């Protein structure tokens, strides 16, 4: 298993958890973004910069993804593409996207986008990550990495 991180929108605290996990488990991880992202020196952690443009990082992740790879993203369409390629998609709050739940997530995302584009004021997105969110993410990540090493 290799870890791919949709790094443009990944919270710093989640990146830090990922850096420690990749180092501890000796798992290769690549952060993909269209702007420079600082990474610690490690033989297991790399950064790939893509050109500016809509979904460039997402498209690059999907192109390079192998079956069984883990992608960290809050982007639901990217998560759907990952699942389609038999990858594993985990969001920064520790929610695992699956074949069973991704269609509902896409439908809700599209519905909310339609509401916003029609001029309705919809609440301003999810609340900031809290300690519980971080712990849920770290636990889910640890489970996935442990399972991959077996």
Q: How would you describe this structure to a colleague?
A:
By secondary structure, the protein is of the alpha/beta class. Helices cover 45% and strands 15% of the residues. It is built from 5 helices and 6 strands. It has a 6-stranded mixed sheet, with helices on both faces. α1 (12-25) packs parallel to α5 and α3 (76-84) runs antiparallel to α4. The N and C termini lie close together (11 Å). The relative contact order is 0.16.
What is the strand and helix layout of this fold?
Elements (H helix, E strand, L loop, with lengths): L2 E4 L5 H14 L3 E5 L11 E5 L6 H9 L5 E3 L3 H9 L3 E3 L5 E2 L4 H16 L13 H19 L1
Helix pairs in contact: 1-5, 3-4
Low-confidence stretches: none
Radius of gyration: 15 Å
| Largest sheet geometry | 6 strands, mixed
Distance between the termini: 11 Å
Widest beta sheet: strand line-up: 3-2-1-4-5-6
Q: What is the H/E order?
A: EHEEHEHEEHH
Number of helices: 5
* Helicity level: 40-55%
* Mean pLDDT figure: 90
């Amino acid at each position: 298993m290799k870890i791919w991180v949709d790094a443009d929108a990944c919270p710093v605290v989640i990146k830090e958890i990922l850096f420690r996990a990749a180092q501890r488990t000796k798992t290769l991880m690549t952060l993909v973004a269209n702007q420079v992202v600082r990474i610690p020196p490690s033989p297991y952690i790399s950064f790939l910069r893509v050109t500016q443009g809509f979904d460039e990082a997402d498209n690059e992740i999907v192109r390079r993804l192998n079956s069984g790879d883990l992608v960290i993203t809050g982007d639901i369409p990217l998560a759907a593409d990952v699942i389609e390629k038999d990858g594993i998609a985990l969001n920064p709050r520790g929610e695992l996207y699956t074949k069973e739940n991704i269609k509902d997530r896409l439908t809700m995302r599209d519905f909310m986008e339609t509401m916003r584009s029609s001029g309705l004021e919809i609440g301003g997105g999810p609340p900031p990550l809290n300690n519980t969110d971080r712990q849920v993410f770290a636990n889910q990540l640890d489970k996935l990495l442990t399972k991959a090493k077996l």
